[in-house]
């Protein structure tokens, strides 16, 4: 009898989680394809490119260099001044 109640409660919990997942995925699919990005986010940002045949150490160094260059170029850009001055 405990086994029946245990399996039944597990099925009920699984169905509730399944309904919630379906609801969330339905909400995501109804979003417009082209959404407005918050200010300051570059829509052309790409993932770092590494050599596919290189060793993990070389790939790690390549990623570090690309991230360092991206951060330095971002820091070199002038800050936008507010219009209320």
Count of DSSP H/I helices: 2
Q: Report the principal-axis shape.
A: elongated
Q: How do the SSEs run, as a string of H and E?
A: HH
- The radius of gyration computed from the alpha-carbon positions, rounded to a whole number of angstroms, is 24 Å
Distance between the termini: 75 Å
Architecture overview:
The chain is an all-alpha fold and 85 residues long. The chain has a domain at 2-30 and 50-76. 58% of the residues lie in helices and 0% in strands. The protein contains two helices and no strands.
Question: Which helices and strands appear, and what pairs or packs with what?
Answer:
Elements (H helix, E strand, L loop, with lengths): L1 H28 L26 H21 L9
Could you provide a short overview of the structure?
Helices cover 58% and strands 0% of the residues. It is an all-alpha fold.
Defining traits:
elongated, 85 residues, mainly alpha
């Amino acid at each position: 009898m405990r086994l029946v109640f245990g399996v039944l409660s597990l099925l009920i919990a699984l169905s509730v989680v399944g309904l919630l997942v379906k609801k969330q995925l339905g909400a995501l699919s109804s979003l417009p394809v082209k959404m407005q990005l918050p200010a300051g986010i570059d829509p052309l940002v790409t993932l770092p490119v590494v050599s596919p045949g290189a060793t993990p150490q070389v790939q790690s160094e390549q990623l570090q260099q690309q991230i360092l260059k991206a951060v330095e170029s971002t820091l070199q850009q002038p800050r936008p001044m507010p219009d209320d001055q």
